[in-house]
Request: fold
Amino acid sequence: MGYRADRINRFMAMQQSGPIGGLAYLEIGVHEGSTLAEVNCGRKVGVDPSFSPEREAVQAKVGDHVTLHEMTSNSYFEVSQETFDFIYIDGLHHWEQVYSDFVCSLARLRPGGLILLDDTLPIDWFSMRRNKAFSIQSRRFLKPKARHRHAWHGDVFKVVPLVASFHRDLEWATFDRGNGQTLFWRRLEWADEHSSSTGSPVTTSERKPLRRIGNEEYFWFLKNRALFQIVSEQGFRLSRRAS
Ligand SMILES: C[S@@+](CC[C@H](N)C(=O)[O-])C[C@H]1O[C@@H](n2cnc3c(N)ncnc32)[C@H](O)[C@@H]1O
Reply:
């Protein structure tokens, strides 16, 4: 099983304290359906404007019980009000689109729900370019001996400071095994037993205005790495707060 599905199944098990069959899962950006196929819950929905190699092949891979929508996430959120326990955001890797997906996902999240965001930890200047082909070609040209030659993350990481600034009810933790991924939850619903975090570490004076974050570069990420709250996945636990 891929580490993404493995991680998602584990977090869902924390939500349910047991079998996760009854939970509902939404994946934005499905591609070939590798992760969607391996997530173990009963209700699964995938959204992608261009499944690979085509929708029929992905449907066969994930099974007939899975609902696929061949459309952009924007179109999907316009036509569907369905709610979910777990939403995995892995669509277009431009921060404006990811933030839009994030806000729409929050509106569709059931009580106790979790959102996982893919590719929140760029590994170098090249990996955070918005154009994937340019990212890989420029690394190949300028750093021909680079170890992670094909790594690409886009500028998804900019969503984390936006959440820190504009969603004070949320908490998060980032996992760096494989591509970095950040998990978000509502503070009033969950206690994080692992980290010493007591909410957003960003003070009011440090908040990043929306219009400035778009221009920030890899150096900003390096300087503000602590904001991402990278934790060890092994010991990470969430437990529901008593209501
Ligand atoms: C990295 S792949 C997804 C991989 C998949 N989540 C997995 O774990 O196997 C990104 C996918 O996002 C899709 N995508 C691009 N723009 C999108 C949009 N506006 N809305 C939803 N999906 C989009 C692409 O077609 C591509 O298949």
About this structure: The mean pLDDT is 91.
